[in-house]
Specification:
This protein is about 40% helix and about 15% strand. The chain is α+β, with helices and mostly antiparallel strands and about 725 residues long.
Length: about 725
């Protein structure tokens, strides 16, 4: 996801000018006639509120008027939205009956009108029918546990039904769920032969599923439908409700304000799962892993709110808060009885840096012609930035570029001969950071071109002549390298500044602007909605500054400085690895609503290197290693095995057959793991032995460093960036 750079200020100004017209339309339309709610007995009968209706209509108007990809909200799109919504609810056809779907078909061509008017009654009716079926099937499963099961019969359970028709009758549905219960129970029985305890365990699991589905609220339904709506427009336009908006912005900045503890749920309790070193929870010396949070209070005198049975995101929202404020927790220590008196822990919230999700470095050594070569590897998980600190003028704001600059300085002091930037699984982030990071490796020049909906093209440039690192460079990418990663790796490739290694990238070449919908909805309408929803009603904090949520709207498309878009095609590596990630399942070219590849005029830039003459030799050396590499063979075996399992849709329910199959699979997996360890120079593990922590079995990262070592060893002047880029 991207935030706009200063170069796209014109587009932002356009939005500001359009807000007034938009909000007037929203205010006038909130009384539009809509279909009446239809109750669904057996469900929790969730219904939309007026706030969700206003947000739906507002998002529809923003998308219709300002999305880069001009898509009319008509009957044709309505069918796409409908099909996506059905898929999000019940992708594997496990819950809804064919009669339910036939009933829903009347909405196929009306959802476009619904979103334009803010009418969510049809959407909620569909969900309530789905929830009714979900509850029925889970309750049926619990009842089945009182039966006796014959695990000697030759039966098969089809667990992947997405390509099969919707189940026609309740009898067929019961049969399907009966087999599912048998499969779940057999799984437990293979690990523990005590069938009575297995049934108790499974009953608790099913009861937990019921508890979770009963905690769903209207915001969950609204978010699900808005996902279907926005994804029908394009894969990267998206709406976030307030809680999800808060999480998105935490991910973007790689930091939050809170107590520094990772939480989870277990048996209706909020459990401490991890503690951030140096954070308030750690410094309190009163909180440990597996402690339970019973209640939360704000400030020294605030009233405690009991959070037992709460959804985890609602509890987290109470615990997070502004830096410097006080939060008090009632805690039950690990092992304490539920009837024990909770202890009260008071903490002052702080800014928590998510270091585990920030850029990191390591050094690998290689031998080339009898000489030891040190390769620094910097892993970059995302293009993050603390926008609030940046906007406030704090020169030490948290960002990818700042973190990588420090790592580069450290690696140079340690005398590395080359650097690999590991950008695998990096799905992008801040467009500004992609430009800034590129600037660490080039002197000056354009980095990316951006074309808006009016076909106006602007260039984003690196204007800082300083260079953080001028030595040999390689960028490691995979299929999940996307967006800002593609801008960065594409620019490095186009300048001839480094070589790209890995697999074809994702192909996301669009720019999103994050719009706080609180800026769109007028104050008068906000007050009216607050009045309708009940001012005295106790609300749960979302941990977000936003009340109405956030829209990430596709407003532009970016292009490489060569004029080629990364959209749809991504970046092609100079040295290619086989893809562990299925290329036909993941990638922009697999998205039906994705924009096409196209080309615009190239930028005026000067290449600083050319690897063309040495790429054949690098490829040859790589191929020679792979021909004799056990690790490479195992990689190909993994890919082949994954493709084979992809096509499997059912599993045998005969205990003896499944046991033999599992034992064979476990033995093969254990042997394969040891083979990989030995191939990487690590000792084989004995049965039951725990794998040592922090072991590196990443064969591809090691090979990327070896390829860069080959490049250094070739010592070809055409590829020497030291002659064309001054050392900083």
């Amino acid at each position: 996801m991207f935030h706009l750079t200063p170069d796209l200020k014109k587009v932002k100004d356009m939005f500001k000018k359009c807000y007034l017209m938009l909000v007037i339309g929203t205010a006038l339309a909130c009384h539009a006639a809509a279909s009446k709610p239809v109750k669904v007995p057996g469900s929790n009968d969730l219904q939309p509120d007026e706030q969700e209706s206003v947000v739906c209509k507002t998002v529809a108007e923003l998308i219709t008027n300002y999305n880069y990809k001009k898509v009319p909200l008509n009957d044709s799109l309505s069918v796409v939205i409908y099909n996506r919504y059905l898929k999000l609810m019940d992708e594997s056809h496990n819950y809804l009956l064919a009669s339910d779907v036939a009933d829903f078909d009347k909405y196929k061509t009306v959802l476009d009108d619904d979103v334009k008017s803010g009418n969510l009654n049809d959407v909620f009716y569909m969900f309530n029918v789905y929830q009714k079926r979900y509850i029925e099937h889970i309750k049926y499963s619990i009842a089945q546990l009182d039966k006796n099961f014959d695990f000697n019969k030759s039966e098969n359970f089809i667990y992947d039904r997405d390509s099969l028709p919707w189940i026609a009758s309740q009898a067929d549905m019961d049969n399907t769920w009966g087999l599912r219960v048998k499969y779940d129970l057999l799984n437990l029985k293979l690990a523990n032969p005590d069938l009575t305890k297995d049934k108790e365990t499974l009953k608790k699991r099913y009861e937990n599923l019921l508890a979770q589905v009963n905690k769903l609220n209207s915001q969950d339904v609204f978010q699900l439908f808005m996902d279907a709506f926005t994804e029908a427009i394009d894969p990267h336009t998206s709406y976030f409700n307030p809680a999800n908006a808060a999480n998105f912005n935490i991910e973007m900045s790689r930091q939050l304000e809170g107590i520094g503890a990772g939480l989870n749920t277990e048996n209706d309790y909020i459990i401490i799962r991890s503690i951030v070193p140096g954070g308030p929870a750690d410094k309190s010396k009163q909180i440990g892993v597996d402690d339970r949070i019973v209640a939360v209070a704000q400030g020294k005198d605030g009233e405690f709110q009991n959070v037992v049975g709460w959804r985890i995101e609602n509890a987290i929202a109470l615990i997070r808060g502004t830096k410097g404020t006080i939060v008090r927790l009632e805690m039950l220590p690990k092992g304490a009885s539920v009837s024990a008196k909770p202890k009260i822990v008071e903490m002052v919230r702080e800014k928590i840096i998510l270091k585990d999700e920030s850029a990191k470095k390591e050094i690998k050594t290689y031998i080339s012609n009898g000489k030891t070569i040190k390769i620094g590897i910097i892993s970059v998980p995302a293009f993050y930035i603390d926008f609030n600190d940046y906007k406030s003028g704090n020169p030490n704001y948290k960002s990818t570029t700042h973190d990588v600059k420090l790592l580069l300085d450290s690696l140079k002091q340690e005398g590395v001969d080359g650097i690999v930037m590991d950008m695998r699984q990096n799905g992008g982030g801040s467009l500004m950071e992609a430009i800034e990071l590129t600037g660490l490796f080039i002197k000056t020049g354009p980095v990316v071109q951006v074309r808006d909906a009016k076909d106006q093209v602007e260039q984003d440039k690196d204007d800082d002549p300083s260079i953080a690192y001028s030595g040999p460079l390689a960028i490691l990418v995979d299929r999940f390298s996307a967006s800002a990663t593609e801008i960065f790796s594409g620019a490095i490739q186009d300048y001839g500044r480094g070589i790209i290694i890995g697999t074809q990238t994702y192909g996301k070449g669009s720019v999103q602007n994050a719009i706080d919908l609180d800026r769109v909805v007028p104050t008068s309408l906000k007050d009216r909605i607050a009045s309708l929803m009940g001012k005295g009603q106790k609300t749960v904090s979302t941990g977000s500054q936003s009340t109405f949520g956030q829209l990430n709207l596709t407003i532009a498309k970016f292009y490489r400085i060569t004029g080629n878009s990364t959209q749809h095609k991504g970046v092609m590596p100079d040295i290619q690895f086989p893809s562990v990630i299925p290329m036909d399942k993941y990638g922009e070219d697999t998205e039906p609503s994705a924009m096409p590849f196209d080309i615009i005029a190239k930028s005026d830039f000067t290449r600083v290197g050319d690897f063309t003459p040495v790429l054949p030799q690098l490829q040859k050396l790589h191929d020679q290693r792979m021909a004799n590499s056990p690790s490479f063979k195992y990689l190909l075996d993994d890919i082949a095995a994954f493709k084979k399992h992809q096509d499997e849709k059912s599993i045998v329910l005969n205990e003896e057959q499944l046991k033999k199959q599992r034992e064979a699979d476990d033995k093969k997996s254990f042997d394969n793991e040891n083979d990989r360890r030995v191939a990487m120079g690590l000792p084989a593990l004995k049965k039951g032995e725990t794998k040592p922590r922090n072991e590196d079995l990443d064969f591809l990262r090691k090979e990327a460093g070896q390829i860069l070592t080959d490049l250094i060893g070739l010592d070809n002047k055409l590829t020497s960036t030291k002659e064309t880029i001054p050392v900083n």
